[in-house]
Amino acid sequence: MENTDFNLISELISQPLRILITSHSNPDGDAIGSSLALASYLKKKNHDVQVMIPDPYPDFLAWMKGHDEILVFSTDKSACVKAIDRAELIIASDYNNLGRLNDAAPLVRQSRAIKVLIDHHLNPSDEFTYQISISKISSTSEIIYNFIEKMGDLPLLDKNIAECIYAGIITDTGSLSYACNYVKTYLIMAELFRLGIDGEHLHRLIYDTYSESRLRLLGYSISDQLVVLPEFHTAYITLSKEALERFDHQIGDTEGVVNYALSIKDINLAALFMERDGIVKVSFRSKGSFAVNTLASEYFNGGGHRNAAGANCTTTLAETIMKFKQLLPKYQPMLKSVY
Ligand code: 5GP
Ligand code: MN
After folding, report:
1. Is residue 92 very low, low, confident or very high in pLDDT (cuts 50, 70, 90)?
2. What CATH number is given to the structural domain containing 237?
3. Between 71 and which of 52, 94, 104, 225 could a Cys-Cys bridge form, CB atoms 3.0 to 4.6 Å apart?
4. Do 125 and 180 lie in a common domain?
């Protein structure tokens, strides 16, 4: 944990505090995994801990210990306001600026609590008192493991915490297929198994949970909605509001859809454009050296990682796709070779 405020944070949590752990909107396995792992650990250190997210998490994560105690701002605003009010320390886990808390952001910004960032996205904002921001680590869940290790608290790890960390690492690395060319990730994985997790079972809980309509939505996305632009090594999928309604879209149903576009040989950039109430949610994925976080932040007011980024646009579906297509000639040379 070089170049981080580890020592200051370690001292800060040496006495019991009222801690609120927060994570980003549209929470994924790492958002929930890292937050719940950290919550369980800090509870063992005698802190009073609450986890809060801006909007609901997908069902396929509803097995981690503590998931049923998470406060959701969009569905239980009054409890969240109270939790923000009473917090002495607010931790931002797996996101790099408070704006990603959506409607909860202004309240957290106004809070006088000390704010600590624990995250692996590039370019953290300056809204935090202390930070542990390490962008080369696969997932925030892995950073949480390293944090507990550095605290000298590995004996406090248990199977429940290990399961949360496993979920975060597996979902942020596409089941150990990207962003994980590091020995340490695998050493940690081995330790999680030593703590008794059943990796095969957990993998099934996360990935083999499709409803029939979700699988049909995936089929429709690929057979009807996939556009391939070989000259730009790019492929994209569009899902209109009507299509999502037709397939009874639930939170998390489009998770992973964009990866199918990227799985085509010689396709180095993939995008998914999804029409939601009043906004267009965009997911970008890339292979190798092509950085989608730069594309997302420079042109779509979004962000993320080099190979996985996203944005929420206020333009229409057609306008957003048009903008994307107009950018491709500029990136054509970089899209040709990405190794
Ligand atoms: P996904 O496409 O799975 O929603 O998101 C991929 C990555 O991009 C995630 O790491 C997420 O944190 C980031 N991301 C997604 N949407 C946004 C956004 O609207 N703003 C920013 N800054 N990052 C985003
Ligand atoms: Mn993450």
Report:
1. very high
2. 3.10.310.30
3. 52
4. yes
